[in-house]
Model the fold of this input.
Amino acid sequence: GDSVTQMEGPVTLSEEAFLTINCTYTATGYPSLFWYVQYPGEGLQLLLKATKADDKGSNKGFEATYRKETTSFHLEKGSVQVSDSAVYFCALSRMKTSYDKVIFGPGTSLSVIP
Amino acid sequence: SAVISQKPSRDICQRGTSLTIQCQVDSQVTMMFWYRQQPGQSLTLIATANQGSEATYESGFVIDKFPISRPNLTFSTLTVSNMSPEDSSIYLCSVGALANTEAFFGQGTRLTVV
Done:
């Protein structure tokens, strides 16, 4: 079945460091790919998305490119801030024409220290 | 977009009792999804709630423990039955992702079983 794998955390970085969180997926066809973020004590928020191969999703300085050949959707940010401390979930959904479930990776906890 | 109202937002319950969580969507949707997020874990799909038919449960989840109702296209309930401390989690309802849109989640119900 469909699944999402992402690098295990926790990840600790200094402010202004470069961030990469690796994500790979297993699915037939062309799923849509997402990164969700969960800040401490808050609900789940969509960070960015990509719906087809070679699409690049971006938001708040974060980027991820849909790589069909490597089945990957790695999250990157050039300079992290303390406010980026959160848990990040890579996810996929297979649906294109009607609503469908979202399958989540295990999550990666990020801590950014001043 | 879809706005999802979920209640209660949190509750503390005695073991052996049941809690019903309500989820209201501001638009008509065919399918609604219920997820569980155990402490420090990712989101796991419990079941898919279709209007007019019985819910479809994922492996490891059964109707006797998590009965679901879906009386119309904008509302669903999830009951956590005969609770034990292991049921302490955040429970979220969702309208799944449609192509070129995001998945929408309720704010979650934080359940603590004592």
Q: What stands out?
A: Residues 40 and 86 of chain A are 6 Å apart (CA to CA).
